[in-house]
Design goal:
Blueprint: H1 4-13, E1 18-19, H2 21-32, H3 38-46, E2 61-62, H4 63-81, H5 98-101, H6 117-124, E3 142-145, H7 152-159, E4 163-168, H8 171-181, H9 186-206, H10 209-227, H11 230-238, H12 244-265, H13 278-281, H14 285-299, H15 304-320, E5 340-342, E6 347-349, H16 356-376, E7 382-386, H17 394-401, H18 403-412, E8 414-419, H19 434-440, H20 459-477, E9 480-490, H21 497-503, E10 506-521, E11 524-537
Parallel strand pairs: 3-4, 3-8, 4-7, 8-9
Antiparallel strand pairs: 1-2, 5-6, 9-11, 10-11
Bound molecules: S-adenosylmethionine.
């Protein structure tokens, strides 16, 4: 059999023009020095980025067109990269696949603002290189993350045999972190999931929603096949042969009467009666009924750990069932209660009427991820405390939870900090999980968040941010070894960290700059730089 390398060389040297997706993936992997899969190539064909010269069963693409496609993105990135001359390209971690960046428990629940595990690993592990010239943390040390978020530091510390304590002001974030890091009895979770899945399936069948959705899906699929044939339609838009908006609006007008006929036939209630709370406004009535049903069942679970894991699964499910369009998932605009033309998929899509599909997907995914982590975890101690890092007494809290570990901690103290603080006016960390707070009635402490989005980026907000982060560092100092090392990841565009360090009685000894390739859509990336400030006692 021809070797992989040989096939790539053949493609390059013999100037073969039309290649299969498999050959294209190999060629592109070699050309870009990064892993490109057959499904990446299939995506480009499907969405009309590349013309298909073969038949649908046997697609073929033009290698020169593929090269032009990738070159256009590379040029854009290189132009931007010349702005960042002092950047450490090594820290982009762009060679890691999406699945490695979200490995095992790192993707148990969405969380806006988390850092990638490889970055944490780089600073916590025992390697050195031309940029990282010292080893800062070693096995059995204890690391602190006062802005723990979804627990990336805790999980990576565990992988490396390092103990860790995290703190987060948001109860739900602490819950995500602790579920990731805890040792679970997975078989118990599995049994409970099976029971709940049967219950929700019965509930759904009795409510006519599944019959309604089946018929709607059939009609939609016939309609889309006829009026929005997959790659042909996308190519026609790219070549400006049809006016996408006008055409889509006209077709949608044709489909909506059919939709409302089915809604009447099955007596489906679309909107809820109120829209005061997030959970009243952002879900179809049918979805809300299922949420209420499942929430009650989950709250009845006796085993606390099983209950917590299932709360996370239900939250993740609920989040994926918000009544919105596929393109507005990240930034909600207005709730959507009827089918709409979806630019992302180039066809008519519909909002979600039942939680069942996502529930099943996420239950399977969670069990798989917990099992993966179970295989590699070390026997070290990690926990996330819920509290305000400006004032929390870490030793006292740990004493109540694990007196043995508290003894070790009080004697040894934290070796240092690895953390990514919130930035000024960027994200509301409670609000991003409003549905979970409302569903389970967790207490919110929004007023203690440092730098929330709702306070903006004005002068007052910046001053309060500087004071807030400096107060956290001063409070944490009480629990650190004398010769501590602190690493803070921040995209400090307002240059606030020199002032923060000064107020905290610290100095910035080094600033590592890493490029961040931000995915704005599936195949477009923008570039900015983020700093990792290394601080020590003044
Ligand atoms: C950038 S995120 C951290 C993300 C984390 N590195 C991860 O990978 O998931 C910052 C976190 O700081 C938390 N936070 C904000 N103010 C806080 C405070 N006063 N005390 C403790 N945590 C706070 C927010 O709730 C948020 O989860």
């Amino acid at each position: 059999m021809e070797s992989y390398k040989q096939q790539v060389l053949d493609i390059i040297e013999q100037n073969i023009k039309l290649i299969t997706p498999k050959e294209a993936a190999r060629w592109a992997t070699e050309y870009l020095k990064k892993n490109i899969t057959v499904s990446n190539i299939a995506y480009l064909i499907q969405y009309g980025r590349l013309k298909n010269y073969g038949s649908n069963g046997n697609p073929l693409i033009d290698k020169d067109e593929l090269k032009d496609y990738y070159d256009s993105f590379r040029n854009e990135l290189y132009q931007k990269s010349s702005i960042f001359k002092d950047i450490n390209w090594h820290l982009s971690f762009s060679e890691y696949k999406e699945s490695e960046r979200t490995k095992h428990v790192h993707r148990l629940h969405p969380y806006k603002g988390k850092f990638i595990p490889q970055l944490v690993e780089y600073f916590l592990d025992s390697h050195t290189d031309e940029f990282k010239k010292e080893v800062y943390f070693k096995k059995d040390d204890i690391v602190l993350d006062p802005f723990c978020g979804s627990g990336t530091t805790l999980v990576q510390a565990n992988e490396l045999g390092i103990h860790a304590v995290g703190i987060d002001v948001s109860y739900f974030n602490s819950l995500i972190s602790n579920i990731k890091i805890k040792k679970h009895e997975i078989s118990k979770i599995y049994n409970e999931i099976k029971r709940l899945t049967d219950e929700i399936e019965d509930f759904n069948k009795n409510s006519k929603v599944s019959s309604f959705e089946n018929e709607l899906n059939e009609e939609l699929s016939k309609f889309n096949n006829k009026y929005f044939p997959f790659s042909d339609f996308k190519i026609a838009i790219r070549n400006k042969e049809i006016d996408e908006n006008k055409y889509a609006n006209e077709r949608l007008k044709d489909f909506l009467p059919l939709y409302y006929k089915l809604v009447n036939k099955y007596s489906i209630k679309l909107k809820q009666d109120r829209e005061d709370a997030f959970i009243d406004k952002w879900f179809l009535s049918t979805v809300r009924d299922e949420i209420e049903f499942m929430k009650e069942k989950v709250l009845e679970i006796n085993d606390k750990d099983v209950k917590n894991v299932i709360m996370i699964i239900l939250s993740r499910t609920v989040r994926s069932c918000r009544a919105t369009t596929h393109s507005d998932l990240a930034t909600l605009k207005e709730p959507v209660f009827e089918p709409y033309y979806c630019k992302k998929h180039g066809k008519i899509c519909k909002p979600i009427f039942s939680i069942i599909n996502w529930w099943k997907t996420y239950t399977v995914d969670t069990i798989k991820r917990l099992r993966e982590f179970e295989k590699i975890r070390t026997d070290t101690f990690q926990i996330c405390l819920t509290g305000d890092s400006k004032a929390i007494d870490i030793f006292e809290q740990i004493k109540n939870i694990n007196p043995d570990f508290a003894n070790i901690l009080i004697n040894k103290k934290f070796r240092g900090i690895f953390s990514s603080p919130p930035y000024v006016g960027l994200i509301d960390y409670h609000e991003q999980h409003a549905y979970a707070y409302e569903m389970f009635g967790f207490e919110r402490r929004d007023e203690l968040e440092i730098g929330p989005l709702y306070k903006g980026q004005g002068e007052e907000a910046k001053m309060s941010y500087i004071k807030g982060i400096a107060d956290v560092l001063k409070n944490c100092k009480r629990f650190l070894q004398k010769n501590y090392d602190i690493f803070l990841v921040a995209n400090d565009k307002f240059n606030l960290y020199p002032k923060i360090a000064e107020l905290a009685g610290m100095r910035i000894v080094e600033e590592f700059k890493r490029p961040v390739l931000n995915r704005v859509e599936k195949n477009r990336e923008t570039l900015y730089s983020e700093s990792i400030f290394h601080l020590k006692e003044k």
